[in-house]
Amino acid sequence: MSWEAWFTLGVVALMVAALARDLVAPVLAVLGADVLLLVTGVIDTEAALSGFANPAPVTVAALYVVARAVEKTGALEPLLLRTLGHRDHGRFALARLLAPVAGASAFLNNTPIVAMLAPQVADWAEKRGRSASAFLMPLSFATILGGTITVIGTSTNLVVSGLLEGAGLAPIGMFEITKIGLPVTILGLFALVLFAPVALPERRTARGRFTDDFREFVFHATVAPGGPLEGRTIEGAGLRQLQGVFLVGITRHGEAIAAPAPSTVLYGGDRLTFAGRVDLVRDLQSMRGLVADGEEHAFDLKRPGNTFFEAVVSGASGLVGKTLKEVEFRSRYHAAVLAIHRAGQRVHAKLGSVPLKEGDTLLLLADEGFARRWRDRNDFLLVSHLGGNPRPTSRQAIIVGLVTLAVVVLAGMGVVSILHAALLGVFALLATGVLTLGEARSAVDLDVIVVIAAAFGIGAAIERSGLAALIGDGIVRGFSGWGPIGVLLAVTLATIALTEVITNNAAAVLIFPIALAAAGELAVDPRPFAMAVAVAASASFLTPIGYQTNTMVYGPGGYRFGDYARLGAPLTAIVVATILLVVPLAWPFSGG
């Protein structure tokens, strides 16, 4: 084993550890590993930058823009929510939701699908006396399954297609992967409808707890005209550093001021809204210059001036590991956090001193523009109104639908490549005014694109250093008694295990050269192994952190960490079994 192979193994191990333990952002871990392998001479410049010249990252970026147009215009919301109907029919209602969701995810990025539908599905469920936990995790899993149906269904499929092309093999056709993706999706949806009502316990969701608990810690008071507080700023009046209580809003002449700044001047007649511990809130009643409001417990999520949001902290956010006080949350976001929910429970500590974690759900008060400002940023995976009505569908939704259909048809029929079809779609959306240039730029998650591109260099290092051949030979020796099927099983399980602790794209890139090396040792066609890697890398059902949509519904669904394995374990077993049964038939090891 050469020093290059040992060094590559060490770099990859450090990268995986950093990703698994969230020591640094994924883009820093993967790009840093790529740069380290370059400067030490394990790979040359061409190999290190090969991903940036590959069609896969650009195609993923273009499809992000198309998905953003769908989200902006609300093109899918009426169609998919209409399938739920007006009544709760148990498993039938679940099936009516999941089937079209999976179908939509075959052609669109699944993250905006979940972002669009999760709040509306939660409202639908709770209005019918059901916990949203019965629907949100299946919603996420259905989008993951649907993404395996076509090559554009998920970025992982495009990454594997790009890796095949880089290895001198034919890329994955638009519907080539359907031969395995469709059976996986059909069986997976059947399992979700069958097992979800049994495996998922009824959980109180974050928004449900918030609506119930708000009456326990809200207090309204009015600034007395001519009193000692009139004309003073919030900070000067001593209302900024209250222990266990904070000022969340002011209503002045019918207009709401959400999350007012410390420098805001108080006027007589201002109606102040405080939140905090009940005993401390009541102490405010004795403060000179404040008159207790007779409607102490009045609260309405839909009342004008009360604009409440649910926001899920992203793993790529600068909020992770820091407290609200450290990031000066109110000043930075112009919003006041009323509650933090983590792993299905409300955090009862002083909010300003709680270090935030990925997947934390923040219930906050802000102005109407909060969602518009932060929905496309990396700070939050999900931003949704509480108690609001669905957005009206834009008239431009028809244009978006036609553009998306054209992308699929042109690429599916081979008229143009997938990359060219996606770029034409982006140009059409910009030319018709559906999206502005700024909206298109903000739609692209550059961190994801850089991770994909940089990961190609790491894959090249694994192959060129001889590490892939060594590991591939070890896999073949260990599973040679079962023949190619045994090796296919080993590759599939390794991919699934890796995708639960690091990003799915990184998992696919790391396993791909090993899978090809194993195929070479067996002297069989590498294509079935590549297809198995593509599907297995997306099969992240066991934890809330393995896949972005799982994290998005973690807090809003009120789930505990172990809830994912309850439903995800049988689903994972079905995916593995289907791969072993279908892949050798669809892509024979002999290459026929």
Give the topology.
Blueprint lengths: L2 H18 L5 H14 L5 H4 L1 H4 L1 H19 L3 H6 L8 H15 L4 H18 L5 H14 L8 H12 L11 H22 L6 H12 E6 L21 E8 L2 E4 L12 E6 L1 H6 L6 E3 L15 E6 L15 H5 L1 E8 L2 E2 L14 E6 L3 H5 L5 E6 L11 H16 L5 H14 L5 H7 L2 H19 L2 H13 L3 H17 L4 H19 L4 H12 L9 H7 L8 H24 L6
Antiparallel strand pairs: 1-4, 1-5, 2-3, 2-4, 6-9, 6-10, 7-8, 7-9
Helix pairs in contact: 1-2, 1-19, 2-19, 5-8, 5-10, 5-16, 5-17, 5-18, 5-19, 7-9, 7-11, 8-9, 8-24, 9-11, 9-24, 10-22, 10-23, 11-25, 16-17, 19-22, 20-21, 20-22, 21-22, 21-23, 21-25, 22-23, 23-25
How does this model look, in words?
This protein has 592 residues and is α+β, with helices and mostly antiparallel strands. It is built from 25 helices and ten strands. It has helices at 3-20, 26-39, 45-48, 50-53, 55-73, 77-82, 91-105, 110-127, 133-146, 155-166, 178-199, 206-217, 278-283, 329-333, 370-374, 397-412, 418-431, 437-443, 446-464, 467-479, 483-499, 504-522, 527-538, 548-554, 563-586; strands at 218-223, 245-252, 255-258, 271-276, 290-292, 308-313, 335-342, 345-346, 361-366, 380-385. A five-stranded antiparallel sheet has the order 3-2-4-1-5. Helix 5 runs antiparallel to helix 10 (155-166), helix 7 (91-105) runs parallel beside helix 9 and helix 21 runs antiparallel to helix 25 (563-586). The chain is elongated. It starts with a helix and ends in a 6-residue tail after the last helix. The model is unreliable at 295-305 (pLDDT under 50).
